[in-house]
Amino acid sequence: xxxxVFDRFTSRIEEVTAxxxxxxxxxxxxxxPPAPDDPWSVPRPAAVDRTTLAWxxxxxxxxxxxxxxxxxxxxxxxxxxxxxxVCGLAQLHCDLNAGAPIDYRFTRCPYCDGIGEDPTLxxxxxxxxxxWHEYDGHGHMCPVCRDDDYQPQWFAEEHMAELEELxxxxxxxKTPARSWFGAWLRRRGPARDRPRR
Length: 197
Known about the structure:
The protein is mostly helical and 197 residues long. It contains seven helices and two strands. Helix 2 (53-66) crosses helix 3 (70-84) and helix 6 (152-174) runs antiparallel to helix 7. The longest helix is centred in the last third of the chain and has 23 residues, at 152-174.
């Protein structure tokens, strides 16, 4: 039985909501008190809805990374979404990866699970968007991975082919006496064209 990717979003929200309800934690936080008339004061904190996909994803990422319960990471998820919104999930993912940038072509997006579209918005198919919009940066893209296409096998083969071409060119340019090696690499062809062993 195959599981629809959109069912995973629903189950993620249900899991977190059930946990919060079982531990008698609020499902939403009201906005903070209004800021005083002082121009140097901190702006009023926004309300946080803990039943959204973004909040559920943030708290599960934090709890999984720190090996703690969801209730211990709830304030951090609240702060993240208050400060940065859904786009803060990309920064969180980067921070949990020791600050290294995340290439979403090789790493599944934690928010959209690699589909490249914002799962909380209606799809192009549901809205009846023209097919050519798929290629012009249409507005349904995921705010975390920015519509990067998660296809690690295809991109790995493309990278290997590019690296072999660069290696062959650099060997030929640097060492004329060893140009046979560069010619041999070019004759082999790109990695994607060779039969697998």
